[in-house]
């Protein structure tokens, strides 16, 4: 037996994070289950961005690099992300995109493991992770990207492997990998591990230092609420910072960028992983987004993620039984992230029919219907109503219209 | 004999670009001569950014990738920059930072010239250009960065040179290089040329196609008015696009990024030089900045740049004669960009004293006082008043205070 809408609303009323929802712009006519693709707009971000535009850029102009802390923004925001991922403040910096940061850290890892030529990943990893690794392999003689099913990775790491590249929570399946175990296996063979935290940071527990992690990257525009295409972050364990060098040795990573000398000398700490001039308006939005986590009880946050995803699974399986949905995401809450995927042969028109009814989830080719649950602002009532609409769409075959089959290039 | 303030004001009154000044937020108490470092805020940008935040991100969320043209923004904005630099619309794209784009194109150029191992540049080129080239040389076996005085470059290009990396208008001296001549010399030896247009685009004539140019990058936050740390642009001649591959092969450069396949396949045209997800808020500001050039008579724009810089040189040399200023920038207007640099042993405190009087120019180590003139919004009266203040500071030795010697890490 599953819960009623009243039960779900009672859960919302008791939710210790309830007040955070009001800090976001939430359209009452929409149930937004795509915060894992683009986080909602924090109300406070609007004024922060307007201030950066009007007062910082418009009025103070070039003086803002010092006066408004633009220069320090990359490590200041990194330090605010650090507690969400179990890192020390000086181990995280905001820069560029996830893709660019993957390139920096793969290049740095390969150079730090001379003689080792293998990047080890899994097939079906998020495409940009594999694409960037392929670009690194094409650029550097002898380097090879090898892929193996995630379950086989720990045993396959050997002395040829320079770096293991894995996504902590899989973008499509929602499966969470054993960060501590894989890191231990890699270290036993002298290899480094680079974790992509794009679908983890801000939604599920991550303990980089507790796992003795080496390297990580992650996305600013999903659970961190940084806005569309927000700058990304990267993590380099303090013990590795001095020996790792970014191949993207731009001026902002220089020890003395404003000395304008001809010779590159990497900054001593995490700043060496900066490259070009930071995009201040985008950084401002990201900083405001990350600040939404200030004062949030992280145990309550992560418990709510598990409760929301669990409720969605239970309700879909109860209310849509017999409609051909096949759960892809692990049933064990300790093994999954904050999104849930069901396989269905008609996933695309079903997703479009849901959007037409105001429930924004997403489709991942070829047959995945995926819904994300952002514990800061998604409610139990949202989950209940979303499944209620899904059940109605399935019961009435409302998805079976030509208009829902027109494929749009959505992200 | 030099002109009077009334003469300068009469020039402003006759200026065909006069109306454009009112489109920017200009503080009446400031004379801003640093648009070559950070362009002023276009008034229209404020509403555009607020719309992107409130309506696109806040209301339409993930749907905006299609509905508001986020996906197409990189090439849409690139096409608007193209006419400013003599390129075809399909040859320019907005992406990442200038530094990251330098890495992409240096890597692509070296791969396209197998067997050639030399990147040829000049000492004193903008630091990030040299730093990135050093990073490329460190990452790729056998590749070497060689530097030679700019005047010696054309004759020194030989069959070992893969790519020549030069800045069209030098950030410190304002000297403009002969793009056509150097490109011709490089092509005669089978080498490519990568031009950095950061101090050129939007301020001085650039004719990439007329020069048969190969590759270029440039900055969005200077004369293009894109806001602090705005995304940069890159140019790849259409004839080269199919054979050049970015080493930063991120998902946005894929031929079918939303097919989520495991294997990288570069997009057919200029989009292959994208890497990660574009930063939409920053792109929005850049697009609004670039649109300030719509309907601007480019001949009038570039003529005004030469007139402003010429007036500044004349007035400083007349009004500050005997105070030790040494012109670094070429006197021939055809050989200079839109900023003027004077060498002076006390350039730092002089620059600080000017800022204290509301005239924002900048200092470039060790001894350069540099002022930029943005033809869209700088007036002849601004130039006159700036030099009047400079003359007063020099005549009264007002710069000679300890407070003006406190060195700040300004950009």
From TrEMBL, chains A, B:
EC number(s) stated in the UniProt entry for this protein: 3.7.1.3
GO cellular component assignments: cytoplasm
Protein name as catalogued: Kynureninase
Residue sites binding pyridoxal 5'-phosphate per the record: 98-99, 126-129, 167, 196, 199, 221, 251, 277
Organism (species): Allosphingosinicella flava
Required cofactor names: pyridoxal 5'-phosphate
Keywords assigned by UniProt, alphabetized: Hydrolase, Pyridine nucleotide biosynthesis, Pyridoxal phosphate
Complex formation: Homodimer.
Pathway: Cofactor biosynthesis; NAD(+) biosynthesis; quinolinate from L-kynurenine: step 2/3; Amino-acid degradation; L-kynurenine degradation; L-alanine and anthranilate from L-kynurenine: step 1/1
A molecular-function term among this protein's GO annotations: kynureninase activity
Species lineage: Bacteria, Pseudomonadati, Pseudomonadota, Alphaproteobacteria, Sphingomonadales
Pfam families tied to this protein: KYNU_C
Similarity comment: family membership: Belongs to the kynureninase family.
Function: Catalyzes the cleavage of L-kynurenine (L-Kyn) and L-3-hydroxykynurenine (L-3OHKyn) into anthranilic acid (AA) and 3-hydroxyanthranilic acid (3-OHAA), respectively.
């Amino acid at each position: 037996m599953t819960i009623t809408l009243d039960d779900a609303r009672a859960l919302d009323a008791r939710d210790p994070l309830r007040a955070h929802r009001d800090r976001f712009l939430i359209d009452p006519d929409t149930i937004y289950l795509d915060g894992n693709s683009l986080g909602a707009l924090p109300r406070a971000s609007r004024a922060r961005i307007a201030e950066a535009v009007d007062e910082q850029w418009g009025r103070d102009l070039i003086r803002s690099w010092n006066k408004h802390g633009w220069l320090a923004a990359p490590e200041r925001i990194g330090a605010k992300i650090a507690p969400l991922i179990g890192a020390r403040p000086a181990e995280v910096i905001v820069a560029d995109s996830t893709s660019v940061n993957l390139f920096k850290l793969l290049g740095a890892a390969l150079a730090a493991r001379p003689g080792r030529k293998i990047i080890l990943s899994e097939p079906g990893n998020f495409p940009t992770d594999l694409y960037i690794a392929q670009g690194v392999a094409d650029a550097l003689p002898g380097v090879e990207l090898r892929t193996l099913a995630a379950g086989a990775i720990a045993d396959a790491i050997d002395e040829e492997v320079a770096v293991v590249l894995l996504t902590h929570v899989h973008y499509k399946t929602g499966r969470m990998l054993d960060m501590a175990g894989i890191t231990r296996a890699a270290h036993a063979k002298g290899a480094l591990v680079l974790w992509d935290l794009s679908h983890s940071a801000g939604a599920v527990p991550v303990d980089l230092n507790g796992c003795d992690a080496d390297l990580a990257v992650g996305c600013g525009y999903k659970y961190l609420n940084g806005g569309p295409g927000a700058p990304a972050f990267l993590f380099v364990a303090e013990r590795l910072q001095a020996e790792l060098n970014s191949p993207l040795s731009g001026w902002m990573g220089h020890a003395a960028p404003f000395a304008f000398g001809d010779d590159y000398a990497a900054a001593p700490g995490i700043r060496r992983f900066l490259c070009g001039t930071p995009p201040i308006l985008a950084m401002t939005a990201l900083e405001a987004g990350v600040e939404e986590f200030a004062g949030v009880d992280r145990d309550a946050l992560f418990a709510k993620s598990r409760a929301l995803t669990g409720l969605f699974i239970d309700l879909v399986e109860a209310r849509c039984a017999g409609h051909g949905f096949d759960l892809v995401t692990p049933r064990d809450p300790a093994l999954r992230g904050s999104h849930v995927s069901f396989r269905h042969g008609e996933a695309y028109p079903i997703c479009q029919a849901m959007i037409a009814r105001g429930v924004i989830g997403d489709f991942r080719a070829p047959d995945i219907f995926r819904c994300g649950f952002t514990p800061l602002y998604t409610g139990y009532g949202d989950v209940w109503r979303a499944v209620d609409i899904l059940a109605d769409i399935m019961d009435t075959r409302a998805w079976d219209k030509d208009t829902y089959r027109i494929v749009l290039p959505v992200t």
